[in-house]
Write a structure and sequence with these properties.
Length: 431
C-alpha cells in the first residue's frame, strides 16, 4: 500500500455498495445504519469518546478491549490510517460507531482507508448512526451493554440478540489485562549503546506512546507480562518500575497483580502507574475501586493538580475509579477531575510511588501532563545515588521542532508520492 496506485484501490473499495447493520442496546433500542469494517456480530459495553482527533490511537488503545466506541466527533476516518499511530500491535476494541460516512483520506501520512484498516484488524463498525442520541442515552442511563451486528443475517431476530446481550457478563468482575498483555518478556526498541537507567514496565495493555515517552530519557525498557512475579521482575535489577494502563475491572486484575505489587513496594524501587496501573497501586495499599456511571473518555478533561493548584487538560479513558473515602492515610490525593471531583492521582507520603488515572503520554490529547514522566525520572535519579542524572534528550526536542517546520513547508506539495517520501525520511531519522 505504499504507492498512490494502492491508495486509489483503497478509496475505490471504500465506495463499494454499503451493507446495512445495526446496534442493539440492552434495553431493546435499535439503531440502524451502514456497515463498515469487518462483517461480524460483537457484544460489548457501549461507551462514548469526545476526542476531535486521534481516532486511530483511540481504536488501537488496548484499554478499549470489551468496548464498543461511540465517537461524538462526526468526521471519523477523514485522514485515513498510517503505520505510526497504532498504540499496540493489535487493536482490541470490540467495535466502533460513527456519524458520517467515511470520506476519502485527506492526509499525506495516510496509507490505508479506515474501512480497510478496520477489516484488516477484524473490527466491525457502523456509520450513518445518530451518535448524539446514543451519547445522550449513556449520559442519562450509564454505559449499556450492546451488540454491533454487520452480518445482516436473514431470520435472526432482535429477541435472540437481546438474549445474547443479557447473557454477556459485562466488565464488572472481568479481567481483560491477561488478554491484551504481551505473552513474553521483551525490550522496547533496544539501542546499541548502554542506557543509563533501566525500567521494567508491567504490561496490562500498555500503549506504545507511553513506552516512547519513557525512552526519551535514555532508558532501557523491559516489558513483562501482567502475571510476571516480583522475583522475576527484581532479577532485572530495575531502577524504576512502571505499571501500565489496561482494560477491565481492576479488582479482577488485582487478584494476581496486588500480591506482585506489594512485594515490589517492599523493594523501595520508584514506582509510577497510569490508568489501570494507578488503580492497582491504590488497591495494593488498601483502597477500593468502583464502576463509574458512564466513565471518562476524551482528550479535553480538566484535572486540578491539588499540589500546585494548576489545571491540566488531559486525555482519559477509564470506566472504573478509585473511591476517595477508601484511600488510606499513607496516600495523598494529588489530582482531581473538575468534571465530577473523582480521584485522578495519588502519591505515597513517604515512599517513591505515585500514579495518575489519566494519560500524560497524550496519544491522542494535550501535552499538559507530560511533566509526570520527568518527575518519575527525577525520582529514580534521587533514589539511585550511583546513577548519573538523566535529562530528556535534546535531540528529541529539537527534532520535533524541525519536524513541524519541514511539514509546514511540505504540506503544499501536490505530488503525493514525493510528500510521503519526505515524511518517511523524517520518521526514519527520528527513529
Amino acid at each position: 500500500m505504499g504507492t498512490s496506485k494502492g491508495l486509489k484501490k483503497d478509496r475505490a473499495f471504500a465506495r463499494s455498495r454499503p451493507i446495512s447493520g445495526e446496534l442493539i442496546l440492552e434495553n431493546g433500542e435499535v439503531f440502524r445504519g451502514f456497515a463498515i469494517g469487518a462483517k461480524k456480530s460483537v457484544i460489548g459495553e457501549v461507551c462514548f469518546n469526545t476526542s476531535m482527533t486521534g481516532y486511530q490511537e483511540i481504536i488501537s488503545d488496548p484499554s478499549y478491549a470489551g468496548q464498543i466506541i461511540n465517537f461524538t466527533f462526526p468526521h471519523i476516518g477523514n485522514v485515513g490510517t498510517n503505520l505510526e499511530d497504532n498504540e499496540t500491535y493489535k487493536p482490541f476494541a470490540s467495535g466502533i460507531i460513527i456519524n458520517c460516512n467515511i470520506s476519502d483520506p485527506s492526509n499525506f501520512r495516510s496509507i490505508k482507508h479506515l474501512d480497510l484498516w478496520l477489516k484488516r484488524n477484524n473490527i466491525p463498525g457502523l456509520c450513518n448512526i445518530d451518535t448524539r442520541s446514543i451519547t445522550s442515552f449513556i449520559r442519562s442511563n450509564g454505559a449499556p451493554k450492546g451488540c454491533v451486528d454487520t452480518l445482516n443475517k436473514k431470520g435472526e431476530t432482535i429477541r435472540k440478540k437481546l438474549n445474547q446481550i443479557t447473557n454477556w457478563p459485562g466488565l464488572n468482575g472481568l479481567d481483560l489485562a491477561k488478554y491484551v498483555s504481551c505473552k513474553e518478556i521483551f525490550r522496547w526498541k533496544p539501542k546499541k549503546n548502554i542506557s543509563k537507567l533501566k525500567i521494567v514496565a508491567i504490561d496490562y495493555g500498555i500503549k506504545h506512546n507511553i513506552l516512547n515517552s519513557l525512552q526519551n530519557f535514555d532508558t532501557e525498557i523491559i516489558i513483562v507480562p501482567a502475571e510476571t512475579d516480583s522475583k522475576k521482575i527484581l532479577e532485572f535489577n530495575p531502577d524504576g518500575i512502571f505499571l501500565s494502563n489496561g482494560p477491565g475491572d481492576p479488582k479482577a486484575t488485582g487478584k494476581y497483580a496486588i500480591p506482585i505489587i506489594r512485594d515490589l513496594i517492599k523493594s523501595n524501587i520508584p514506582i509510577f502507574g497510569i490508568c489501570l496501573g494507578h488503580q492497582i497501586i491504590s488497591l495494593a495499599f488498601g483502597a477500593k475501586t468502583k464502576k463509574m456511571f458512564q466513565g471518562h473518555r476524551g482528550a479535553n478533561h480538566p484535572v486540578k493538580n491539588m499540589l500546585t493548584q494548576k489545571v491540566e487538560i488531559t486525555s482519559q479513558n477509564h470506566g472504573f475509579v478509585v473511591t476517595e473515602k477508601s484511600i488510606p492515610k499513607s496516600l495523598t490525593v494529588t489530582h482531581k477531575s473538575l468534571f465530577d471531583g473523582t480521584v485522578e492521582g495519588i502519591k505515597h507520603k513517604t515512599k517513591n510511588i505515585f500514579s495518575v488515572q489519566y494519560h500524560p503520554e497524550a496519544s491522542p490529547g494535550p501535552h499538559d501532563s507530560h511533566y509526570l514522566f520527568n518527575e518519575f525520572i527525577e525520582m529514580i535519579n534521587k533514589n539511585n545515588k550511583n546513577a548519573s542524572l538523566v535529562k530528556p534528550s535534546g535531540i528529541f526536542i529539537r527534532f520535533d521542532k524541525l519536524q513541524r517546520i519541514i511539514i509546514i513547508i511540505l504540506h503544499n506539495y501536490r505530488n503525493y508520492d514525493e510528500l510521503r517520501f519526505y515524511y518517511k525520511c523524517l520518521y526514519t531519522i527520528k527513529q
